[in-house]
Structures are given as C-alpha cells and as structure tokens.
Amino acid sequence: MDEGRLAGRVALVTGASRGIGAAVARAFAAEGASLALGYEPRPDMAALAEDLAAELRASGTKAVALAADLAEPGAVEELVDGARAHLGPLDVVVANAALSAQSPWREISVAEWDRVLAVNLRGSWLLARAAYPDLVASGRGSIITVSSVMARTGQAGALHYTASKAGIIGLTRALARETGPDGVRVNAVMPGAIRTEHEEALQPDADAVFEQVTAVQSLKRRGTADDLAGAFVYLASDDSAFVTGQVLTVDGGWVFG
C-alpha cells in the first residue's frame, strides 16, 4: 500500500487553524505526515486548531496544536521546541501565518505597520531560523513560505501587507542561496484570489472583488484553499527534490510571467 509522499515526515504549519493553513495540514496528513498546527494565541483560533488536530488524530495522523505569536522570537523558539517534543525533529516548515490588514497608506500607524511586517515577514525568518538544525539533520528539509499575487500587482489600501508579501519573495530567494549547501530547500507559494472565510470577512464587497478578478483570470472560477494544497505537497515532497529558490504562482492564470 502506498504510504504517501510525506510518510514518516514531521511538518509544522503556521496559521493552521483555518483557510489555507488548514487545507495544507489536511493535505499533508493525507500524504502521511505528522502535523504540528501553529495558531495565533486567541480563544477562537485555539478552538479551531484543536478541532483540526482532533480531526487529524481521528484519521490516524499524529497531530498537535500549539499557540505562538510569531512576532515574538521567544514564542517562535517555543513553538518549534513544542513541535519537536510532541512529534520529533522537523522535516518541513510552512510559514503560512500572516496578518491581513487594510488601511489607506497615510492612515497606517507605525505600530500597525510594524506588527504586520513582524508577523508576516520577520516571523517567517524567525521560524526558519528556529527550525533550521532539524531541517539540516533531516537530509530532506523543506521551508515553504507564502507570498501573494499582490506582491506582483500591488494593492491599494494594503501597503503594509503587500510590502510584507513582496519581502517574502526576496527572503525566499536569498535564504535558498544560503541553505542550499546544507541540503535544505526554500520555496514560496504565491496564491491568487483564494476564497476563505477570513478574506470574505475582511472585505465587505468580497463578491464584487472576486468577480473583477475572475474576469481577468484565465480560469473562470474562484480559487479555494484546496486548490493550493497540492502545490505545498509538491514543494514539501521529494517530487521537488531539485527545486529551490522558486515562487510557485497558483492564481488561476491571473498574472503571467
């Protein structure tokens, strides 16, 4: 019987309580991985993450939910230590957690700017740094970051978010240069307009926005978190053993090139 492309591997996925992170966690579990589910330390996120962990365990997957504020270096270290203590050394890290925020650029406070960049960009670096010894020892370590098509198109009203996601591209490529000699791969997934409950709550006119995007996409439907999950499985598995420093765009043909 096929054990799955990630059989025997331990993966840490941040932002795993809902949306893209939850879809990635389920896809990894289906391929045989054990899962550490990182979530924002809020009661609602804790409940969702614990429910997902219970769901995965019921299906035979080793899974644990762990809280962490990715803007805090000590919390990131504790997250990685907790994942290792429950499941063993890490083979795959998915830096998915991010803050989405919208404000006209002149109304963004310094505190809001710093918070978005701290979680979205610095948090990805901190996570990679904390997990790195495990990933090197794995012999097949994979770091997967998450950018956004907004980094290519620009997005009015979301300067701080867009800047953080553009920064992820540079982080991914520079990090891949440094980690390659140690056998650790680093790649990014760049989602397009993906339908999640969080995004719909963030944008009151979400339906109109998605209609505009769909009009310019080659594939005339709205993307879902499940549409992205296969890209993460590919980048985590040996299918991409000779792939590093790449940005894999999954946007239904919104942006080419």
UniProtKB/TrEMBL annotation:
A single Pfam family it belongs to is adh_short_C2
Keywords linked to the UniProt accession: Oxidoreductase
Q: Recorded GO terms, molecular function?
A: oxidoreductase activity
Residue stretches making up the Ketoreductase domain: 9-197
Q: Which Gene3D superfamilies match?
A: NAD(P)-binding Rossmann-like Domain
Presence of keyword Oxidoreductase? yes
Superkingdom of source: Bacteria
Presence of keyword Endoplasmic reticulum: no
Q: Which InterPro entries match?
A: KR_dom, NAD(P)-bd_dom_sf, Sc_DH/Rdtase_CS, SDR_fam
Q: What family is reported?
A: Belongs to the short-chain dehydrogenases/reductases (SDR) family.
Name of the molecule in the record: SDR family oxidoreductase
- What are the leading ranks of the lineage? Bacteria, Bacillati, Actinomycetota, Actinomycetes, Jiangellales
